[in-house]
């Protein structure tokens, strides 16, 4: 298949953005838009310098370095037509375990005017019941005591900005691209809390010199597994050790609050607005919450791919009813959006055969996802005495998934919950199903006090244990 190469001289590109967390989503979304933008001669100072901060990034880092940070992105059409692009916008890349100084220098560099982030929902280190930054986290404690040799994103950004400030290199924007409600406000909370605890003079400088726009990001990007690498290279006739693939839908809506200038991303389809709240709310409440809603029941039913689960009418009905009955009343629609069409498109996107997203990816880190995607609307539903059957079923299915780690077909599986505490483990291990409702994921409300929810949840817990997840799902459709 043809690979569409970028149409600019890569040697002429200068970095104006430092990105932390060069995972698959970033490489399918911000790099995709920026790669197109760099074709404009007046935008060639907006290349991207990547930074990876985790030991687990080693393999991807080394693969990208070997190919001068270029990679292929295959965009999978809902019509079955795929298109592959060679992406050149990631002009340099550093891994903190190898080149920590390069990352700090880049944050301090005058030419870098935006720091973008995809460090996952849990990466902001926010306590779920209070919404406060956790100062008593091991990595954070290390960085507070060792400001010049940081380990966390917060420590890196603080030390880099300290150097930027003393060199007189001016203001910078920090732009979160993670799936969080008000991701800019959350990023501000995390970075400012850290810096206030470490260096009050730097905190005062940041108040004047750093902005944190909110943004809504959207493009389903599965993890690239080793068999995908072989599949994509065979199909594309390439030899790429780090290919990415994603769906054809893409959206990025950003608050226009860039203190040190920004790329003209609007030329390639990015939307700028004064208030991103309605877009964020719609996307997190419908797309991300539906992903979470379908993930645990589908996994327990034995499905491993989202498109396979979306061929099961029961799952489609479950998701669509959740969107229409449970969530729509709480979603003010942005003026240029047709909500019915948006929901229908979501169903089509989830069913995209050539994306074939992993359900395990959706199940990953539920502890961080529930508080953002599910709890805000559940709290409103409880207040409004709404029908809580579907959400009670979801939470019972989540417990079953975490506790028994065996699906309806008897297959056992591993779970991936990087932010699970020992207390969470004890609550899951407990024989008493009500204990599970004190999991850190649900701390924003007292689910035990919600009688209707509790009754429904306890019924679902027993029924899933006796009859399996799918049979219970059928009974509530
Ligand atoms: P990924 O696993 O491919 O990449 C995650 C990246 O985040 C890695 O580079 C990792 O090193 C970094 N990271 C994780 N925890 C970190 C921490 N504590 N500190 C610093 N860096 C950290 O995952 P992905 O698919 O790229 O998704 C990343 C995030 O992007 C999601 O959590 C979500 O917020 C957002 N997102 C993803 C999608 C998608 O479909 N994949 C869609 C919209 C938004």
Automatic annotation (TrEMBL):
Entry keyword Ion transport: no
Alphabetized UniProt keyword annotations: NAD, Oxidoreductase
Any one of the GO BP annotations: mannitol metabolic process
Domain Mannitol dehydrogenase N-terminal stretches: 16-266
Pfam family, any one: Mannitol_dh
Keyword Oxidoreductase appears in the UniProt entry: yes
A GO term, aspect molecular function: oxidoreductase activity, acting on the CH-OH group of donors, NAD or NADP as acceptor
Domain Mannitol dehydrogenase C-terminal stretches: 275-464
Name the UniProt record assigns to this protein: Mannitol 2-dehydrogenase
């Amino acid at each position: 298949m043809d690979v569409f190469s970028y149409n600019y001289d890569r040697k002429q590109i200068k970095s104006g953005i430092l990105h932390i967390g060069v995972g698959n989503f970033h490489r399918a979304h911000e790099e995709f838009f920026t790669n197109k933008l760099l074709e404009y001669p007046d935008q060639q100072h907006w290349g991207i310098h990547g930074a990876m901060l985790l030991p687990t990034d080693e393999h991807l880092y080394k693969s990208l370095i070997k190919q001068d940070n270029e990679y292929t992105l295959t965009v999978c059409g809902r019509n079955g037509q795929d298109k592959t692009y060679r992406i050149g916008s990631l002009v340099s890349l550093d891994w903190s375990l190898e080149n920590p100084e390069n990352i700090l220098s880049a944050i301090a560099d005058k030419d870098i005017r935006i720091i973008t982030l995809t460090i996952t929902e849990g990466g902001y280190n926010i306590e779920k019941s209070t919404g406060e930054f956790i100062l008593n986290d091991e990595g954070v404690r290390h960085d507070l005591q060792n400001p010049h040799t940081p380990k966390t994103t917060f420590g890196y950004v603080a030390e880099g900005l300290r150097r930027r400030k003393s060199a007189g290199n001016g203001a910078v924007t920090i732009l979160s691209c993670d799936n969080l409600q008000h991701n800019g406000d959350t990023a501000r909370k995390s970075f400012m809390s850290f810096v206030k605890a470490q260096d009050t003079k730097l905190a005062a400088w940041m108040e004047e010199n750093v902005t944190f726009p909110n943004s809504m990001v959207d493009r389903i990007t599965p993890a690239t597994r080793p068999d995908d690498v072989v599949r994509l290279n065979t199909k594309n006739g390439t030899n790429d050790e780090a290919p990415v693939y994603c769906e054809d839908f893409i959206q990025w809506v950003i608050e226009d609050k860039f203190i040190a200038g920004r790329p003209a991303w609007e030329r390639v389809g990015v939307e700028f607005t004064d208030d991103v709240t309605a877009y964020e709310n719609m996307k997190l409440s419908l797309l991300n919450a539906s992903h979470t809603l379908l993930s645990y029941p589908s996994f327990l039913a034995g499905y491993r791919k989202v498109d396979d689960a979306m061929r099961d009418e029961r799952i489609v009905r479950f998701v669509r009813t959740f969107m229409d009955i449970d969530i729509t009343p709480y979603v003010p629609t942005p003026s240029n959006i047709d909500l019915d069409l948006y929901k229908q498109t979501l169903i089509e996107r989830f069913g995209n055969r050539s994306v074939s997203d992993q359900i395990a990816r959706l199940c990953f880190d539920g502890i961080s996802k529930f508080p953002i995607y599910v709890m805000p609307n559940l709290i409103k539903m409880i207040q409004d005495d709404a029908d809580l059957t579907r959400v009670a079923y979801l939470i019972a299915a989540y417990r079953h998934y975490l506790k028994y780690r065996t699906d309806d077909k008897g297959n056992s599986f591993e779970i991936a919950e990087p932010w699970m505490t020992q207390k969470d483990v004890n609550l899951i291990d407990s024989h008493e199903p009500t204990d599970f409702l004190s999991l850190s994921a649900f701390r924003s409300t007292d689910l035990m006090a919600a009688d209707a929810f509790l009754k429904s949840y306890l019924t679902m817990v027993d029924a899933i244990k006796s009859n399996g997840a799918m049979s219970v799902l059928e009974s509530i459709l």
